[in-house]
Amino acid sequence: MNDDCAPFAADCAVRLAAELIAHTWDPVVLMALRAGRRRRIDLLEAIAGVSDKVLTQSLRRLHANGLTTRVTSPVDRSVAYELSALGRGLADGPLAALGQWAIDHADEVLAAQEQHRREAPGTR
Protein backbone atom coordinates (compact mmCIF):
# COMPACT_ATOMS: atom_id res chain seq x y z
CA MET A 1 0.00 0.00 0.00
CA ASN A 2 1.27 3.44 -0.91
CA ASP A 3 2.27 5.60 2.10
CA ASP A 4 1.93 8.88 0.18
CA CYS A 5 -1.36 8.25 -1.57
CA ALA A 6 -4.08 10.73 -2.27
CA PRO A 7 -7.18 10.03 -0.16
CA PHE A 8 -9.23 9.42 -3.29
CA ALA A 9 -6.87 6.72 -4.61
CA ALA A 10 -8.25 3.18 -4.47
CA ASP A 11 -5.25 1.84 -2.53
CA CYS A 12 -5.04 4.65 0.02
CA ALA A 13 -4.39 3.55 3.61
CA VAL A 14 -6.84 6.16 4.89
CA ARG A 15 -9.60 4.47 2.89
CA LEU A 16 -8.69 1.08 4.41
CA ALA A 17 -8.71 2.55 7.93
CA ALA A 18 -12.07 4.24 7.34
CA GLU A 19 -13.58 1.00 6.06
CA LEU A 20 -12.55 -0.78 9.28
CA ILE A 21 -14.67 1.58 11.37
CA ALA A 22 -17.32 2.56 8.80
CA HIS A 23 -20.06 0.40 10.28
CA THR A 24 -21.75 2.05 13.23
CA TRP A 25 -21.34 -0.78 15.72
CA ASP A 26 -17.88 -2.12 14.77
CA PRO A 27 -15.87 0.47 16.76
CA VAL A 28 -18.26 0.09 19.70
CA VAL A 29 -17.77 -3.69 19.72
CA LEU A 30 -14.00 -3.28 19.49
CA MET A 31 -14.02 -0.94 22.47
CA ALA A 32 -16.26 -3.32 24.44
CA LEU A 33 -13.75 -6.10 23.81
CA ARG A 34 -10.91 -4.02 25.30
CA ALA A 35 -12.03 -5.36 28.68
CA GLY A 36 -11.16 -8.89 27.56
CA ARG A 37 -12.78 -12.02 26.19
CA ARG A 38 -16.58 -11.89 26.10
CA ARG A 39 -19.40 -14.09 24.92
CA ARG A 40 -21.89 -12.65 22.45
CA ILE A 41 -24.61 -12.55 25.10
CA ASP A 42 -22.31 -10.55 27.39
CA LEU A 43 -21.64 -8.10 24.56
CA LEU A 44 -25.39 -7.74 23.99
CA GLU A 45 -25.82 -6.81 27.64
CA ALA A 46 -22.84 -4.44 27.64
CA ILE A 47 -23.70 -2.53 24.46
CA ALA A 48 -26.94 -0.62 24.79
CA GLY A 49 -29.00 -0.39 21.63
CA VAL A 50 -27.37 -3.08 19.50
CA SER A 51 -29.58 -5.88 18.23
CA ASP A 52 -28.55 -9.53 18.23
CA LYS A 53 -28.53 -9.60 14.41
CA VAL A 54 -26.42 -6.46 14.08
CA LEU A 55 -23.97 -7.64 16.76
CA THR A 56 -23.55 -10.96 14.96
CA GLN A 57 -22.87 -9.15 11.67
CA SER A 58 -20.37 -6.89 13.39
CA LEU A 59 -18.54 -9.80 15.03
CA ARG A 60 -18.31 -11.60 11.68
CA ARG A 61 -16.98 -8.48 9.95
CA LEU A 62 -14.41 -7.81 12.68
CA HIS A 63 -13.27 -11.43 12.55
CA ALA A 64 -13.02 -11.37 8.74
CA ASN A 65 -10.79 -8.28 9.00
CA GLY A 66 -8.51 -9.98 11.53
CA LEU A 67 -9.48 -7.67 14.38
CA THR A 68 -11.03 -10.31 16.64
CA THR A 69 -10.46 -13.93 17.48
CA ARG A 70 -13.28 -16.40 17.98
CA VAL A 71 -12.56 -18.76 20.89
CA THR A 72 -14.51 -21.98 21.44
CA SER A 73 -14.36 -23.57 24.87
CA PRO A 74 -13.44 -27.27 24.69
CA VAL A 75 -15.48 -27.93 27.83
CA ASP A 76 -18.93 -26.64 26.94
CA ARG A 77 -18.38 -25.53 23.31
CA SER A 78 -19.41 -21.96 24.18
CA VAL A 79 -18.04 -19.26 21.92
CA ALA A 80 -16.38 -16.05 23.03
CA TYR A 81 -14.62 -13.23 21.24
CA GLU A 82 -11.49 -11.30 22.02
CA LEU A 83 -9.33 -8.72 20.31
CA SER A 84 -6.53 -10.04 18.15
CA ALA A 85 -3.17 -8.25 18.33
CA LEU A 86 -4.26 -6.26 15.29
CA GLY A 87 -7.59 -5.38 16.91
CA ARG A 88 -5.91 -4.41 20.19
CA GLY A 89 -3.61 -2.06 18.29
CA LEU A 90 -6.61 -0.37 16.66
CA ALA A 91 -8.74 -0.25 19.82
CA ASP A 92 -5.99 0.92 22.18
CA GLY A 93 -4.46 3.36 19.69
CA PRO A 94 -6.50 5.24 17.09
CA LEU A 95 -9.95 4.33 18.45
CA ALA A 96 -9.05 5.31 22.00
CA ALA A 97 -7.64 8.60 20.69
CA LEU A 98 -10.77 9.20 18.62
CA GLY A 99 -12.93 8.50 21.66
CA GLN A 100 -10.93 10.97 23.73
CA TRP A 101 -11.23 13.56 20.96
CA ALA A 102 -15.02 13.04 21.01
CA ILE A 103 -15.09 13.55 24.79
CA ASP A 104 -12.97 16.69 24.50
CA HIS A 105 -15.03 18.20 21.67
CA ALA A 106 -18.56 16.83 22.21
CA ASP A 107 -19.98 20.21 23.26
CA GLU A 108 -18.56 21.90 20.16
CA VAL A 109 -19.88 19.21 17.82
CA LEU A 110 -23.34 19.27 19.44
CA ALA A 111 -23.42 23.08 19.22
CA ALA A 112 -22.48 22.95 15.52
CA GLN A 113 -25.19 20.36 14.87
CA GLU A 114 -27.77 22.49 16.66
CA GLN A 115 -26.67 25.59 14.74
CA HIS A 116 -26.97 23.66 11.47
CA ARG A 117 -30.48 22.49 12.38
CA ARG A 118 -31.55 26.08 13.13
CA GLU A 119 -30.12 27.34 9.82
CA ALA A 120 -31.32 24.48 7.60
CA PRO A 121 -34.18 25.40 5.27
CA GLY A 122 -37.56 23.98 6.24
CA THR A 123 -36.66 23.32 9.89
CA ARG A 124 -38.01 26.53 11.35
Structural descriptors:
single chain, 124 residues, mainly alpha, three-stranded antiparallel β-sheet, 3 strands
The average pLDDT score comes to: 91
What does the main sheet amount to?
3 strands, antiparallel
Q: What overall geometry do the principal axes of the alpha carbons give?
A: globular
Rounded to an integer, what's the Rg over CA atoms? 18 Å
Instruction: Give the uncertain stretches in residue-range form.
Output: none
SS strand fraction = 5-15%
> Got a strand count?
3
Q: State the helicity in percent bands.
A: 55-70%
What is the topology, as strand order, of the major beta sheet?
1-3-2
The sequence of SSEs as H and E is HHEHHEEH
Backbone structural class: mainly alpha
In angstroms, what separates the terminal alpha carbons? Answer: 48 Å
What is the number of helices?
5
